[in-house]
């Protein structure tokens, strides 16, 4: 099979971890007789520096003409403490989500037996955790009406949802639940927010189309609590943009390393695959960042491209690297950490 993949390395450790994922994907291609055409494109602070736009049209063109987008990270500390900055790297990510119609962010959280004791949570609390968040990604407060009044002394951001937006996200949730344990949790704040009541009402109306799926409705504050008490009691969770942003960061620490958690952003057509850890500027250029989240994101990409054997081959070699201690410093015993590039080379060779 011929595959064209847009390669958006972005900022910070993005280029280093992306490079390892490319090595692994190329090894997969060799093993399964595919050919991958990589199309590098600018994004984030790197794109602001080069062309003044964190998601330039040239990058968008490359993305829409590809089968998938593999994405590193976006963000640069130079913008973080400068509220006056007119263009920010993060805007590139939001623009990309919107222009590519990526309305659902799929974030799994699972545990690895060999790492379970690295989790900040007790073993018995997290053993068997295997949940997936579907976070709505192109609506809500991130994209609502915002502004200032009162000479700048009052600011507002509005959370708006349409029934259509809720429905298409929930549909993905029901479909995923059907493929998994047929349990779906709708996370909202319907005791307070009108937009949450629209969510609940819309999901309730869809229940009859999926009679096998057992749906529960929980308030976001309660979910935040149960997520660290009994994460293994959840399976598929659907929620709006901001709740999902917060809860998926919370969930990411359960497994013991944020450096391991992949994600996919999907919509009508093309998907975008990215590690959830961000640009981690302190580690940039040091060849120490954990490439496994990006490599596992590539596995999600192969799954969505209808190539599950390729995806499983990646997951297997990642498990092997964990079991054999071929890991970066975040997962290694003191002074035993391997370099980012060394882990990438090892994975490609052992696939
Ligand atoms: C994420 C990030 C982004 C978000 C930022 C960088 C805009 O935190 O992907 O979760 O808030 O969606
Ligand atoms: Mn986030």
Task: Tell me the layout of helices and strands.
Elements: E1 2-10, H1 14-32, E2 35-40, H2 45-51, H3 57-64, E3 68-73, H4 77-80, H5 89-99, E4 104-110, H6 123-126, E5 130-136, E6 146-149, E7 154-157, H7 163-179, E8 183-188, H8 194-206, E9 214-219, H9 220-229, E10 236-239, H10 241-252, E11 262-266, E12 271-275, H11 292-304, H12 308-323, H13 340-350
Parallel strand pairs: 1-2, 1-3, 3-12, 5-10, 8-9, 8-10
Antiparallel strand pairs: 4-5, 4-11, 6-7, 11-12
The structure holds 3-isopropylmalic acid and manganese (II) ion.
3-isopropylmalic acid is lined by residues 90, 93-94, 245.
Describe the structure in your own words.
- The chain is of the alpha/beta class and 351 residues long.
- The chain has 2 domains: 1-100 and 270-351, Isopropylmalate Dehydrogenase; 111-257, Isopropylmalate Dehydrogenase (3-Layer(aba) Sandwich), CATH 3.40.718.
- Helix content is 41%, strand content 20%.
- It is built from 13 helices and 12 strands.
- A 10-stranded mixed beta sheet has the order 2-1-3-12-11-4-5-10-8-9, sandwiched between helices. It has a two-stranded antiparallel sheet with strand order 6-7.
- Helix 8 (194-206) links the parallel strand 8 (183-188) and strand 9 (214-219).
- Helix 11 packs antiparallel against helix 12 (308-323) and helix 12 (308-323) packs across helix 13 (340-350).
- The two termini are 19 Å apart.
- The protein binds 3-isopropylmalic acid (IPM) and manganese (II) ion (MN).
- Residues 90, 93-94, 245 line the site of 3-isopropylmalic acid.
- The record marks 142, 189 as: Important for catalysis.
- Substrate binds at residues 97, 107, 135, 221.
């Amino acid at each position: 099979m011929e595959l064209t993949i847009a390669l958006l390395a972005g900022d910070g450790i993005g280029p280093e971890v992306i490079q390892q994922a490319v090595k692994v994907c190329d090894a997969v291609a060799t093993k399964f007789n595919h050919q991958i055409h990589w199309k590098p494109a600018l994004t984030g602070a790197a794109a602001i520096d080069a062309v003044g736009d964190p998601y330039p049209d040239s990058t968008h063109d490359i993305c829409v003409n590809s089968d998938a987008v593999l994405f590193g990270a976006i963000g640069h500390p130079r913008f973080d403490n400068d509220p006056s900055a007119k263009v920010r790297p993060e805007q590139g990510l939001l623009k990309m989500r919107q222009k590519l119609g990526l309305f659902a962010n799929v974030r799994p959280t699972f545990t690895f037996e060999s790492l379970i004791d690295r989790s900040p949570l007790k073993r018995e609390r997290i053993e068997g955790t295997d949940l997936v968040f579907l976070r709505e990604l192109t609506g809500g407060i991130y994209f609502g009406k915002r502004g200032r009044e009162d000479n700048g002394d009052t600011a507002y951001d509005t959370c708006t949802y349409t029934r259509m937006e809720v429905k298409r996200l929930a549909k993905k949730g029901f479909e995923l639940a059907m493929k998994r344990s047929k349990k779906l949790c709708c996370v909202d704040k319907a005791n307070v927010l009108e937009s949450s009541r629209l969510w609940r009402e819309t999901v309730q109306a869809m229940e009859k189309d999926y009679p096998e799926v057992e749906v529960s409705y929980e308030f976001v504050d309660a979910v935040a609590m149960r997520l660290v008490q009994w994460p293994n009691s959840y399976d598929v969770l659907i929620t709006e943009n901001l709740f999902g942003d917060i809860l998926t960061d919370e969930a990411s620490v359960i497994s013991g390393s944020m450096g391991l958690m992949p994600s996919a952003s999907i919509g009508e057509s093309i998907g975008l695959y990215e590690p959830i850890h961000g640009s981690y500027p302190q580690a940039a250029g040091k060849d120490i960042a954990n490439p496994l989240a990006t490599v596992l994101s590539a596995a999600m990409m192969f799954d969505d491209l209808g190539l599950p054997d390729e995806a499983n081959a990646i997951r297997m070699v990642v498990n092997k690297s964990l079991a054999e201690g071929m890991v970066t410093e975040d997962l290694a015993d003191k002074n035993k950490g391997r370099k980012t590039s060394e882990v990438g080379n090892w994975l490609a060779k052992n696939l």
